[in-house]
Amino acid sequence: MRICIEGFFDGFGSNLPDQFACLYMNRDDPFSVAVFSVNARVVFEAKVMSVFSPRRFEDYAWVDSFCKYLDATFSSDTFFERIGWESALTVAPWLERGRLTSL
């Protein structure tokens, strides 16, 4: 089996979700954060006959879990879902109001 992992950085900027830099990264100026888009491609190559062999098929079962690991580790969508960003953004105004009234 041959595995090839390629990273692509074209120098293009990307966007963070609304208020992410301020609330999650504790930055007063959201433009002080440089955000870029990075893409990756993973290519697995195997001999055709080895895929159809029952014993060899089990040897390749880790490929799916590896791809899921890469997605969970590097995908911004997966990251925002894991930290519950949509929920946090919904609650943030209520927490801020409560903090201001308790001062």
Span of the ends, CA to CA: 62 Å
Our Rg estimate from Cα atoms comes to 21 Å
Q: By helix and strand content, what is the structural category?
A: alpha+beta
| Biggest sheet character | 2 strands, antiparallel
| Number of strand elements | 2
What is the 3D form? elongated
Order of helices and strands: EHEHHHHH
Estimate the strand proportion: 15-25%
SS field, number of helical segments: 6
Total individual domains = 1
What is the helical fraction, as a range of percent?
Answer: 40-55%
Task: Name the average pLDDT.
Answer: 84
Low-confidence stretches: none
Strand order of the largest sheet: 1-2
Walkthrough of the structure:
The chain is of the alpha+beta class. It has one domain (2-102). It is 51% helix and 21% strand. Strands 1-2 form a two-stranded antiparallel sheet. The model has no long low-confidence stretch (mean pLDDT 84).
Question: Which structural traits does this protein have?
Answer:
single chain, 103 residues, two-stranded antiparallel ribbon
Secondary-structure blueprint of this entry?
Blueprint: E1 2-13, H1 20-23, E2 36-45, H2 48-52, H3 54-59, H4 62-74, H5 76-82, H6 85-102
Antiparallel strand pairs: 1-2
What is the gist of this entry?
The chain has 103 residues and is an alpha+beta fold. It contains 6 helices and 2 strands, in the order βαβααααα.
